[in-house]
What does this fold into?
Amino acid sequence: MKLERRVALITGAGSGIGRGSALMFAREGARIAVADIDEASAAETARQIKEQGGEALAIGADVGNPEHAQAMVEAALRRWGAIDILYNNAATEGPICFAAQITIEQFDRVIGVNLRGTWLAMKYALPAMMEKRRGSILNVSSLAGLKATPGGAAYVASKFAVIGITQAVAIEYGKYNIRANCIIPGWIETPMVHRLFGAALPQSSVTAPPLRRIGQPQDVAKAALFLVSDDADYITGTVFTVDGGINAGDHGP
Ligand SMILES: NC(=O)c1ccc[n+]([C@@H]2O[C@H](COP(=O)([O-])OP(=O)(O)OC[C@H]3O[C@@H](n4cnc5c(N)ncnc54)[C@H](O)[C@@H]3O)[C@@H](O)[C@H]2O)c1
It folds into this structure.
């Protein structure tokens, strides 16, 4: 098992990529703090982990709220005494409109959850990692964090920034044996994608990736497992795409 007895705090683990990763990490021996703003969905993921023989703690938290973020980290530390892995996966997609149409509240919410939430969890978890001189952080960006897409300026900005803050943390904390990496999902079939595009996903979700299929949460979970595990113990500050090859360039029909 690759994560035997490790403690992993995963945000947004009530759904999609977060839930898929939580279940996979638990099968690899990790104890999982399952955090989500939707407490019932966090509880359901925790139930599924326990059903497969694992250990889990469900935590209701809005990662963008400093008190919630601190309480989330403290709950995991109280339960298990350490956070070995922090996986900042929670995000909100925000409105689909051009930049000038985004309201102040919508802009602040997207940046507040996606960027500030990622920073807050690191802010509160890093001291515990420093104490143990060990830690692995994985932050979730997006292809929209590498190249802008129209209709989601706040989301794009937040995901570019997630890469920046991950690399800043990687260079600051490397000497303390704390790694920080960024994962870039491409098209992954999750409730978020269905919210954006409806039940029938656009044909481009299959034709855009050179590998000619839409990704599944397990595709991201497998890469995440590698990045947080000791198999990646000389990898920090990296930006790791899991996109079926979309970012490699345009391809023919
Ligand atoms: N699905 C894709 O195609 C895709 C592509 C690129 C990046 N991503 C990124 O992957 C991550 C997971 O996305 P997903 O597709 O699984 O989405 P999802 O909507 O299925 O899951 C996101 C989870 O985050 C939770 N969440 C939202 N706001 C929160 C908050 N303030 N505090 C705590 N939890 C909160 C939601 O309740 C939900 O359970 C996100 O960071 C997303 O931006 C997804």
About this structure: The chain has a mean pLDDT of 97. The two ends are 41 Å apart (CA to CA). The chain has eight helices and seven strands. The beta strands are 7-11, 31-36, 56-60, 85-88, 135-140, 178-185, 239-242.
